[in-house]
């Protein structure tokens, strides 16, 4: 940009007849390049106020260290699992696009972590988009040992939460979710496995939409059994205009 301004000032100080043609061509090419670069920057800049649910960037972590929870006083590691092998459909697509453009796609590991404050805003937005408005998972910060958040390169691609003390003998899985494009790669399976292992000694219960056959199959593989079919269970959560199924199964995994 500075070079363009210098060239523009130089041309302005010379009579038109004395400016070589190659200088004019170079000036126009340089101006076109600057305009393209400026337009590209405007497209890729993501602000906090206007981000897509698939591209919510988390704050960078400068330090990853263990921390102690206030609920059970457990010391939690900064990572539950770092998975560098799993390739969900979204990553396969990105890799194929890059290969067709003769570019190398740098793949990052899928990282499973406990819930942290930096995750809350991104997860609330995902819940509002994929479940219903008004969900706030901030309360889960009180017992992060019963949570799992899946990141890919500072983007939340999945999460799961368990409420450990619904009753003295029951725990309850409130949410378990994987972004479209990242499904059918074992992410939800591992999150469910992790949540079950955080609360041994109690029955684990949950509600699942009657039309969510893939989730029902997953829960069945972990030995969850249906106890009740509840009609219009989601009426109090979903907006009236929603076309999603409003009925639910109540499932239980016995200890």
Based on the model shown, name its key terms.
alpha+beta, 6 helices, elongated, GNAT_dom, histone acetyltransferase activity
Description:
The chain is of the alpha+beta class and 255 residues long. It is built from 6 helices and 10 strands; from the N terminus they run ααβββαβαβββαβαββ. The chain has helices at residues 2-12, 21-44, 89-100, 117-130, 187-198, 213-221, and strands at 67-68, 75-76, 81-83, 110-113, 147-152, 155-163, 170-178, 203-209, 225-230, 248-253. The strands form 2 sheets. The protein has an 8-stranded mixed beta sheet with strand order 3-4-5-6-7-8-10-9, with helices on both faces. It has a two-stranded antiparallel ribbon with strand order 1-2. Helix 1 (2-12) packs antiparallel against helix 2 (21-44). The protein is elongated. The termini are far apart.
Compact description:
The protein is α+β, with helices and mostly antiparallel strands and 255 residues long. Helices cover 32% and strands 21% of the residues.
Q: How many β-strand stretches?
A: 10
Number of helix segments?
A: 6
Largest sheet: 8 strands, mixed
Low-confidence parts: 40-53
N-to-C series of helices and strands: HHEEEHEHEEEHEHEE
Any idea what the shape is? elongated
What share of residues is helical? 25-40%
Structural class: alpha+beta
How large a portion of the residues is in β-strands, by DSSP E? 15-25%
Spatial order of the strands forming the largest sheet: 3-4-5-6-7-8-10-9
GO molecular function, one term: histone acetyltransferase activity
Organism: Graphocephala atropunctata
Protein name: N-acetyltransferase domain-containing protein
Pfam family, one: Acetyltransf_1
């Amino acid at each position: 940009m500075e070079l363009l301004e210098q060239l523009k000032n130089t041309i302005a100080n010379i009579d038109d007849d004395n400016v070589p043609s190659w200088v004019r061509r170079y000036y126009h090419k340089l101006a076109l390049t600057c305009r393209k670069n400026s337009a590209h920057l405007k497209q890729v800049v993501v602000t906090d106020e206007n981000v897509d649910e698939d591209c919510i960037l988390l704050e960078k972590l400068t330090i990853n260290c263990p921390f102690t929870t206030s609920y059970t006083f457990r010391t939690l590691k900064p990572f539950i699992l770092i998975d560098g092998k799993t390739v969900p459909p979204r990553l396969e697509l990105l890799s194929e696009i890059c290969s067709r453009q003769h570019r190398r796609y740098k793949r990052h590991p899928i990282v499973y972590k406990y819930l942290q404050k930096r995750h809350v805003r991104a997860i609330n937005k995902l819940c509002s988009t994929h479940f219903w408005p008004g969900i706030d998972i901030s309360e889960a910060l009180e017992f992060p040992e019963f949570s799992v958040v899946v990141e890919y390169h500072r983007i939340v691609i999945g999460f799961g939460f368990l409420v450990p003390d619904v009753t003295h003998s029951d725990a309850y899985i409130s949410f378990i979710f994987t972004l479209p494009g990242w499904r059918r790669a074992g992410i939800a399976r591992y999150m469910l496995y992790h949540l079950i292992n955080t609360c041994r000694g109690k029955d684990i219960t949950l509600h699942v939409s009657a039309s969510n056959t893939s989730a029902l199959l997953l829960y069945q593989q972990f030995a969850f059994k249906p106890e009740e079919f509840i009609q219009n269970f989601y009426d109090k959560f979903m907006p009236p205009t929603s076309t999603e199924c409003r009925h639910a199964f109540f499932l239980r995994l016995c200890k």
